[in-house]
Amino acid sequence: MPTFLVTDPAFLGYDSPDHPDSSKRLRGILDDLERRPLWREVSPLPARPVTHEELVAVHSPAMVDAVEKACQSGYGFIDADTPVSPETLVAAWAAAGGVLQAIDAVMREGGNAFCLVRPPGHHAGPDQAMAFCLFNNVAVGARYAQRRHGCARVAIIDWDIHHGNGTQDTFYTDGSVFYLSLHRSPYFPETGRSDETGTGPGAGCTLNIPLPFKTSREEYLAAFRRGLAAIEAFHPEFILVSAGFDAHRQDPIGGWCLETTDYATLTAAVTDLADRCCQGRVVSVLEGGYHPDALPESIANHLEALRKALPAA
Ligand SMILES: [Zn+2]
Protein backbone atom coordinates (compact mmCIF):
# COMPACT_ATOMS: atom_id res chain seq x y z
CA MET A 1 0.00 0.00 0.00
CA PRO A 2 1.28 3.46 -0.85
CA THR A 3 2.19 6.47 1.19
CA PHE A 4 1.07 9.35 -0.99
CA LEU A 5 2.89 12.67 -1.02
CA VAL A 6 0.91 15.65 -2.30
CA THR A 7 3.09 18.32 -3.93
CA ASP A 8 2.29 20.97 -6.50
CA PRO A 9 4.21 23.80 -8.21
CA ALA A 10 1.49 26.20 -7.00
CA PHE A 11 2.88 25.94 -3.45
CA LEU A 12 6.21 27.39 -4.64
CA GLY A 13 4.52 30.08 -6.71
CA TYR A 14 3.99 32.90 -4.22
CA ASP A 15 6.01 34.79 -1.66
CA SER A 16 6.08 37.75 0.62
CA PRO A 17 9.40 39.34 1.57
CA ASP A 18 10.74 38.16 4.94
CA HIS A 19 7.65 36.12 5.80
CA PRO A 20 8.36 32.91 7.79
CA ASP A 21 6.13 30.86 5.45
CA SER A 22 8.28 31.47 2.38
CA SER A 23 8.67 29.47 -0.82
CA LYS A 24 12.30 28.98 0.31
CA ARG A 25 11.00 27.06 3.31
CA LEU A 26 9.13 24.61 1.08
CA ARG A 27 11.99 24.44 -1.43
CA GLY A 28 14.26 23.40 1.46
CA ILE A 29 11.91 20.58 2.44
CA LEU A 30 11.69 19.30 -1.14
CA ASP A 31 15.47 19.50 -1.70
CA ASP A 32 16.03 17.49 1.48
CA LEU A 33 13.40 14.86 0.65
CA GLU A 34 14.60 14.46 -2.92
CA ARG A 35 18.03 13.41 -1.63
CA ARG A 36 16.61 10.60 0.50
CA PRO A 37 15.82 6.99 -0.60
CA LEU A 38 12.40 7.69 0.96
CA TRP A 39 11.62 9.98 -1.99
CA ARG A 40 11.45 6.94 -4.29
CA GLU A 41 9.29 5.00 -1.86
CA VAL A 42 6.37 7.43 -1.74
CA SER A 43 3.72 7.91 -4.44
CA PRO A 44 3.53 11.48 -5.71
CA LEU A 45 0.07 12.93 -6.00
CA PRO A 46 -0.72 16.27 -7.69
CA ALA A 47 -3.13 18.71 -6.08
CA ARG A 48 -6.31 20.00 -7.68
CA PRO A 49 -8.18 23.25 -7.02
CA VAL A 50 -10.80 22.96 -4.29
CA THR A 51 -14.30 23.86 -5.50
CA HIS A 52 -16.46 26.66 -4.10
CA GLU A 53 -18.96 24.07 -2.85
CA GLU A 54 -16.21 22.21 -0.96
CA LEU A 55 -15.02 25.46 0.67
CA VAL A 56 -18.46 26.60 1.78
CA ALA A 57 -18.94 23.28 3.59
CA VAL A 58 -16.63 24.91 6.19
CA HIS A 59 -16.38 28.64 5.48
CA SER A 60 -19.20 31.13 5.07
CA PRO A 61 -19.78 32.24 1.46
CA ALA A 62 -19.00 35.81 2.59
CA MET A 63 -15.62 34.72 4.00
CA VAL A 64 -14.69 32.80 0.83
CA ASP A 65 -15.68 35.85 -1.23
CA ALA A 66 -13.67 38.21 0.95
CA VAL A 67 -10.53 36.04 0.78
CA GLU A 68 -10.80 35.59 -2.98
CA LYS A 69 -11.40 39.30 -3.60
CA ALA A 70 -8.50 40.31 -1.32
CA CYS A 71 -6.18 37.95 -3.22
CA GLN A 72 -7.39 38.93 -6.67
CA SER A 73 -7.11 42.63 -5.97
CA GLY A 74 -3.33 42.44 -5.80
CA TYR A 75 -0.57 42.25 -3.24
CA GLY A 76 -1.20 43.04 0.37
CA PHE A 77 -2.21 41.58 3.70
CA ILE A 78 -5.58 40.23 4.86
CA ASP A 79 -4.45 40.55 8.48
CA ALA A 80 -1.17 41.63 10.05
CA ASP A 81 0.49 38.23 9.44
CA THR A 82 -1.23 36.97 6.32
CA PRO A 83 -0.06 38.06 2.88
CA VAL A 84 -2.38 37.73 -0.11
CA SER A 85 -1.87 37.87 -3.87
CA PRO A 86 -3.39 36.22 -6.96
CA GLU A 87 -0.72 33.51 -6.77
CA THR A 88 -1.45 32.92 -3.07
CA LEU A 89 -5.06 32.20 -3.95
CA VAL A 90 -4.04 29.61 -6.54
CA ALA A 91 -1.90 27.94 -3.86
CA ALA A 92 -4.68 28.13 -1.23
CA TRP A 93 -7.14 26.47 -3.62
CA ALA A 94 -4.54 23.77 -4.36
CA ALA A 95 -3.69 23.30 -0.66
CA ALA A 96 -7.28 22.48 0.27
CA GLY A 97 -7.83 20.54 -2.96
CA GLY A 98 -4.61 18.59 -2.43
CA VAL A 99 -5.94 17.32 0.88
CA LEU A 100 -9.08 16.15 -0.91
CA GLN A 101 -6.97 14.36 -3.53
CA ALA A 102 -5.14 12.58 -0.70
CA ILE A 103 -8.41 11.56 0.95
CA ASP A 104 -9.71 10.17 -2.36
CA ALA A 105 -6.48 8.23 -2.90
CA VAL A 106 -6.45 6.72 0.60
CA MET A 107 -10.12 5.77 0.36
CA ARG A 108 -9.54 4.21 -3.05
CA GLU A 109 -6.21 2.44 -2.56
CA GLY A 110 -5.63 2.26 1.17
CA GLY A 111 -2.38 3.50 2.66
CA ASN A 112 -1.80 6.98 4.05
CA ALA A 113 -0.67 10.40 2.87
CA PHE A 114 1.26 13.56 3.69
CA CYS A 115 0.26 16.83 2.03
CA LEU A 116 3.23 19.15 1.59
CA VAL A 117 1.07 22.23 1.13
CA ARG A 118 1.16 25.94 1.85
CA PRO A 119 -0.49 28.19 2.93
CA PRO A 120 -1.36 26.37 6.17
CA GLY A 121 -4.92 26.26 7.46
CA HIS A 122 -5.65 25.61 11.12
CA HIS A 123 -6.17 29.24 12.19
CA ALA A 124 -8.75 29.89 9.44
CA GLY A 125 -12.27 29.67 10.84
CA PRO A 126 -15.76 29.69 9.38
CA ASP A 127 -15.77 33.48 9.07
CA GLN A 128 -12.15 34.62 8.88
CA ALA A 129 -8.71 34.03 7.46
CA MET A 130 -5.97 34.44 10.07
CA ALA A 131 -2.28 34.05 10.86
CA PHE A 132 -0.79 32.75 7.55
CA CYS A 133 -4.00 30.69 6.94
CA LEU A 134 -6.54 31.45 4.20
CA PHE A 135 -8.70 28.32 4.03
CA ASN A 136 -8.75 25.57 6.64
CA ASN A 137 -7.31 22.68 4.64
CA VAL A 138 -7.86 20.04 7.31
CA ALA A 139 -11.40 21.16 8.16
CA VAL A 140 -12.37 21.15 4.47
CA GLY A 141 -10.87 17.65 4.31
CA ALA A 142 -12.90 16.42 7.29
CA ARG A 143 -16.18 17.60 5.75
CA TYR A 144 -15.21 16.08 2.40
CA ALA A 145 -14.42 12.69 3.99
CA GLN A 146 -17.89 12.77 5.49
CA ARG A 147 -19.86 13.98 2.49
CA ARG A 148 -17.98 12.31 -0.35
CA HIS A 149 -16.94 9.08 1.34
CA GLY A 150 -19.55 8.61 4.04
CA CYS A 151 -17.13 8.62 6.98
CA ALA A 152 -19.53 9.40 9.81
CA ARG A 153 -16.89 10.27 12.41
CA VAL A 154 -13.59 11.99 11.62
CA ALA A 155 -10.79 12.83 14.06
CA ILE A 156 -8.34 15.71 13.68
CA ILE A 157 -5.07 15.54 15.61
CA ASP A 158 -3.26 18.89 15.79
CA TRP A 159 0.33 18.85 17.08
CA ASP A 160 1.34 22.27 15.75
CA ILE A 161 2.64 24.34 18.69
CA HIS A 162 -0.20 26.81 18.20
CA HIS A 163 -3.81 26.05 19.01
CA GLY A 164 -5.87 25.50 15.86
CA ASN A 165 -8.59 27.95 16.79
CA GLY A 166 -10.11 27.87 13.29
CA THR A 167 -10.50 24.11 13.35
CA GLN A 168 -11.95 24.18 16.85
CA ASP A 169 -14.47 26.87 15.88
CA THR A 170 -15.55 24.91 12.81
CA PHE A 171 -16.53 21.78 14.72
CA TYR A 172 -17.23 23.09 18.23
CA THR A 173 -20.97 22.31 18.18
CA ASP A 174 -20.80 19.49 15.64
CA GLY A 175 -20.30 16.11 17.29
CA SER A 176 -19.20 14.23 14.18
CA VAL A 177 -15.62 15.57 14.15
CA PHE A 178 -13.32 15.14 17.16
CA TYR A 179 -10.64 17.82 17.53
CA LEU A 180 -7.53 17.11 19.63
CA SER A 181 -4.92 19.83 20.08
CA LEU A 182 -1.70 19.84 22.09
CA HIS A 183 -0.31 23.36 22.23
CA ARG A 184 1.92 25.64 24.20
CA SER A 185 -0.01 27.89 26.61
CA PRO A 186 -0.08 30.76 27.20
CA TYR A 187 0.78 31.42 23.57
CA PHE A 188 -0.70 32.70 20.32
CA PRO A 189 -3.66 32.66 19.57
CA GLU A 190 -4.53 32.42 23.29
CA THR A 191 -7.40 29.97 22.71
CA GLY A 192 -7.60 26.27 23.52
CA ARG A 193 -8.18 26.19 27.26
CA SER A 194 -8.80 22.73 28.70
CA ASP A 195 -12.36 23.73 29.62
CA GLU A 196 -13.18 24.42 25.95
CA THR A 197 -14.63 20.98 25.23
CA GLY A 198 -17.47 21.63 22.76
CA THR A 199 -21.14 22.46 23.21
CA GLY A 200 -24.48 20.97 22.19
CA PRO A 201 -24.02 17.87 20.04
CA GLY A 202 -20.29 18.72 20.05
CA ALA A 203 -19.96 18.45 23.83
CA GLY A 204 -16.92 16.32 24.64
CA CYS A 205 -15.63 16.31 21.03
CA THR A 206 -12.99 19.00 21.52
CA LEU A 207 -9.99 18.02 23.64
CA ASN A 208 -7.47 20.75 24.32
CA ILE A 209 -4.26 19.87 26.11
CA PRO A 210 -2.54 23.20 26.82
CA LEU A 211 0.98 22.73 28.15
CA PRO A 212 3.37 25.26 29.69
CA PHE A 213 6.66 26.31 28.13
CA LYS A 214 8.68 24.15 30.54
CA THR A 215 7.01 20.90 29.48
CA SER A 216 9.49 18.05 28.93
CA ARG A 217 9.43 15.70 25.95
CA GLU A 218 8.33 12.88 28.24
CA GLU A 219 5.41 14.91 29.59
CA TYR A 220 4.45 15.94 26.07
CA LEU A 221 4.47 12.39 24.74
CA ALA A 222 2.47 11.12 27.74
CA ALA A 223 -0.12 13.86 27.19
CA PHE A 224 -0.25 12.99 23.49
CA ARG A 225 -1.02 9.35 24.29
CA ARG A 226 -3.81 10.48 26.63
CA GLY A 227 -5.28 12.48 23.78
CA LEU A 228 -5.11 9.51 21.40
CA ALA A 229 -6.94 7.34 23.94
CA ALA A 230 -9.84 9.81 23.83
CA ILE A 231 -9.84 9.62 20.04
CA GLU A 232 -9.92 5.83 20.13
CA ALA A 233 -13.04 6.00 22.30
CA PHE A 234 -14.64 8.22 19.61
CA HIS A 235 -14.19 5.43 16.99
CA PRO A 236 -13.16 7.64 14.05
CA GLU A 237 -13.48 6.30 10.52
CA PHE A 238 -10.81 8.66 9.19
CA ILE A 239 -7.93 10.53 10.84
CA LEU A 240 -6.48 13.85 9.70
CA VAL A 241 -3.35 15.35 11.20
CA SER A 242 -2.58 19.07 11.42
CA ALA A 243 1.14 18.44 11.28
CA GLY A 244 3.01 21.52 12.36
CA PHE A 245 6.67 21.11 13.25
CA ASP A 246 7.10 24.35 15.20
CA ALA A 247 7.13 22.59 18.60
CA HIS A 248 10.67 21.49 17.67
CA ARG A 249 13.29 22.76 20.13
CA GLN A 250 15.16 24.68 17.39
CA ASP A 251 12.14 26.30 15.77
CA PRO A 252 12.59 30.09 15.47
CA ILE A 253 8.88 30.80 16.15
CA GLY A 254 7.94 27.95 18.51
CA GLY A 255 11.20 26.69 20.02
CA TRP A 256 9.65 24.27 22.49
CA CYS A 257 10.35 20.74 23.70
CA LEU A 258 10.41 18.24 20.82
CA GLU A 259 13.36 16.62 19.08
CA THR A 260 13.42 15.61 15.43
CA THR A 261 12.91 11.91 16.19
CA ASP A 262 9.85 12.66 18.33
CA TYR A 263 7.92 13.26 15.12
CA ALA A 264 8.48 9.60 14.23
CA THR A 265 7.17 8.63 17.67
CA LEU A 266 4.06 10.81 17.35
CA THR A 267 3.41 9.49 13.85
CA ALA A 268 3.76 5.83 14.87
CA ALA A 269 1.32 6.37 17.73
CA VAL A 270 -1.19 7.84 15.27
CA THR A 271 -0.76 5.08 12.68
CA ASP A 272 -1.11 2.40 15.39
CA LEU A 273 -4.36 4.03 16.44
CA ALA A 274 -5.51 4.28 12.82
CA ASP A 275 -4.75 0.58 12.29
CA ARG A 276 -6.97 -0.28 15.23
CA CYS A 277 -9.91 1.96 14.37
CA CYS A 278 -9.98 2.95 10.69
CA GLN A 279 -7.96 0.59 8.49
CA GLY A 280 -4.88 2.79 8.77
CA ARG A 281 -6.51 5.78 7.07
CA VAL A 282 -4.38 8.81 7.93
CA VAL A 283 -3.96 11.97 5.88
CA SER A 284 -1.47 14.40 7.37
CA VAL A 285 -1.24 18.04 6.32
CA LEU A 286 1.61 20.51 6.82
CA GLU A 287 0.86 23.45 9.09
CA GLY A 288 3.74 25.39 10.73
CA GLY A 289 7.47 24.69 11.21
CA TYR A 290 10.19 27.14 10.23
CA HIS A 291 13.72 25.97 11.04
CA PRO A 292 15.69 25.43 7.80
CA ASP A 293 17.29 22.17 9.00
CA ALA A 294 15.04 20.88 11.79
CA LEU A 295 11.91 21.22 9.64
CA PRO A 296 13.02 19.02 6.70
CA GLU A 297 14.49 16.45 9.08
CA SER A 298 11.34 16.36 11.19
CA ILE A 299 9.21 15.94 8.07
CA ALA A 300 11.45 13.12 6.86
CA ASN A 301 10.95 11.39 10.24
CA HIS A 302 7.20 11.87 9.93
CA LEU A 303 7.02 10.61 6.35
CA GLU A 304 9.30 7.65 7.07
CA ALA A 305 7.05 6.62 9.97
CA LEU A 306 3.97 6.88 7.73
CA ARG A 307 5.74 4.66 5.20
CA LYS A 308 6.86 2.15 7.83
CA ALA A 309 3.32 1.80 9.13
CA LEU A 310 2.26 0.10 5.88
CA PRO A 311 3.01 -3.35 4.56
CA ALA A 312 5.77 -3.18 1.90
CA ALA A 313 4.41 -2.83 -1.64
ZN1 LIG B 1 2.14 26.87 14.42
The average pLDDT score comes to 97
Can you tell me the CATH class?
Alpha Beta
Total number of helices: 9
Q: Which CATH architecture?
A: 3-Layer(aba) Sandwich
Could you name the CATH topology?
A: Arginase, Chain A
How much strand?
15-25%
| Sheet with most strands | 8 strands, parallel
Order of helices and strands: EHEHHEEHEHEHEEHEHEH
| Structural shape | globular
Number of strands: 10
Give the neighbour order of strands across the main sheet: 2-1-5-10-9-6-7-8
Radius of gyration: 17 Å
Percentage of helical residues?
Answer: 25-40%
Residue stretches low in confidence (pLDDT < 50, at least 5 long) are none
Hetero ligands = zinc ion
The class by helix and strand makeup works out as alpha/beta
Q: CATH-wise, what's the superfamily? A: Histone deacetylase domain
How far is the N terminus from the C terminus? 5 Å
| Overall domain count | 1
Task: Provide an overview of this structure.
With 313 residues, this protein is α/β, with parallel strands linked by helices. The protein has a single domain (3-308), classed as Arginase, Chain A (3-Layer(aba) Sandwich), CATH 3.40.800. The protein is built from 9 helices and 10 strands. It has an 8-stranded parallel beta sheet with strand order 2-1-5-10-9-6-7-8, sandwiched between helices. The protein starts with a strand and ends in a 5-residue tail after the last helix. The model has no long low-confidence stretch (mean pLDDT 97). The structure holds zinc ion (ZN). Zinc ion binds next to loops.
